[in-house]
Amino acid sequence: MYRVEPVVSKSFRIVDLKPNLENITVRVRVLETHPPRTIQTKKGMRTISSAIVGDSTGRVDVTVWGEKAGTLKNGDAIEISGAWTTVFRGNVVLNIGRTTIVKKIDDNAVPGVNDIPNTKPVARGRRGFEERSGEEYE
């Protein structure tokens, strides 16, 4: 009989996110949410919603897939485990899917909305991170 070890998700700060990471964990505050919508993908029609989350190091766009679309709430402090990253329009995107675990955490575990910098991870550049104008994200 084989013993199956639980898969442990690796913790990241937003500044350290880069394309094609899998099974990652972040502790973030939800800064902005958008309602679910249906899109056409290579695999057919899918329901998604989008959001922006952040920590003390920056912000990242989030795509929430399937049944979890629309479940993030503005202002919540959450831990996301089992997420993965992709690239969309040059920006790193954090993805939440069927097997991703999203749970509320203590409000003091992450900075408040006004204490999160307006920087986002991008798929280019030496460190993969660049300053963007805050206008896009406010």
Automatic annotation (TrEMBL):
Residues 113-138 are annotated as: Disordered. GO terms for biological process: double-strand break repair via homologous recombination; response to ionizing radiation. Keywords: DNA-binding. InterPro entries: NA-bd_OB-fold, OB_Ssb-like, SOSS-B. Residues 127-138 have a biased composition (Basic and acidic residues). It holds the Pfam family OB_Ssb-like. One of its GO terms (molecular function) is DNA binding. SUPFAM superfamilies: Nucleic acid-binding proteins. This is Single-stranded DNA-binding protein.
